[in-house]
Amino acid sequence: MNFEGQVIIVTGAGSGIGRATALRFAELGGSVVVADVNVEAGTKTVAELTTPGLAVATDVSDSAQVKALVSAATEAFGRLDVLVNNAGYGYRGTVETIEERDWDRLMAVNVKSVFLCSKYAIPELAKHAGRIVNVASYTAQVGIPDRAAYVASKGAISALTRAMAVDHAGQGIRVNAVAPGTVNSPYFAKMLSESPDPVALRASLDGRAPVGRMAEPEEIAQAIVWLASEESRFAVGSVLTVDGGTSIWGR
């Protein structure tokens, strides 16, 4: 895989999967625009890149900031080839217990962001047979307890991926998604640090998959980069599950 001369936007790239994805694109020669609401985290990621990069503070649920992100990318590097819609977060609650404001905010960050970033990136992507890779989740296939908004948002991303793939294939744009399982990310690191029994919690998290462990961010990043590469050129509207077998575990 080679991304020399190509420009990639990765949202939520200050940490976790996004950071690992930005670093992997850079290793393969791409220039990476790191978008994150936490500009300090985004700047740290850019400092680790082995190719030219740019950190842009971005609330991906805000259309004006998303427009500015795409403009910053094209002004800095002259083109746009890949968009990775990775930004998102989880929130506890069933439809009975979650507050409406929390539901709306999660949907704005997880789903509206995919709409906005894609909307403003597509005119630039169409100039270079660009690619979009969205980050969904295995939870949309199986459901998990006490995460109603999160599961719904990831199901929406999977469906939107397919709709966008159909709508924009004629422009030469390929749209696909990755559906990760549980990932050894800062989110779970914080959960473990706050747990009264981190050993038991870690065993529970690792035990979700038949392979007996969580994914590392770099493993998900590799799948994202493959879908953005020419090696996957016949993949259109695919949702690639990378979950260590969790979704087929049946437990």
Can you tag this structure with a few keywords?
251 residues; seven-stranded parallel beta sheet; alpha/beta; single chain; 2 domains; Rossmann fold; 47% helix
Question: In brief, what are we looking at here?
Answer:
With 251 residues, this protein is of the alpha/beta class. It is 47% helix and 14% strand. It has a seven-stranded parallel β-sheet, with helices on both faces.
Mean pLDDT over the full residue set: 95
Rg calculated over all Cα atoms: 17 Å
Overall outline: globular
CATH superfamily of the largest domain: NAD(P)-binding Rossmann-like Domain
Which strand order do you get reading across the main beta sheet? 3-2-1-4-5-6-7
Put simply, the count of helices is: 9
> What fold name stands as the CATH topology of the largest domain?
Rossmann fold
Beta content comes to 5-15%
Report the order of strands and helices.
EHEHEHEHEHHEHHHE
Biggest sheet layout: 7 strands, parallel
Counted beta strands: 7
CATH classification, class level of the largest domain: Alpha Beta
Write up what this structure looks like:
This protein has 251 residues and is of the alpha/beta class. 47% of the residues lie in helices and 14% in strands. It contains 9 helices and 7 strands, in the order βαβαβαβαβααβαααβ. It has helices at residues 16-27, 39-48, 63-77, 100-125, 139-142, 148-168, 186-194, 198-206, 217-228; strands spanning 7-11, 31-36, 53-57, 82-85, 131-135, 174-180, 239-242. The chain has a 7-stranded parallel β-sheet, sandwiched between helices. The model has no long low-confidence stretch (mean pLDDT 95).
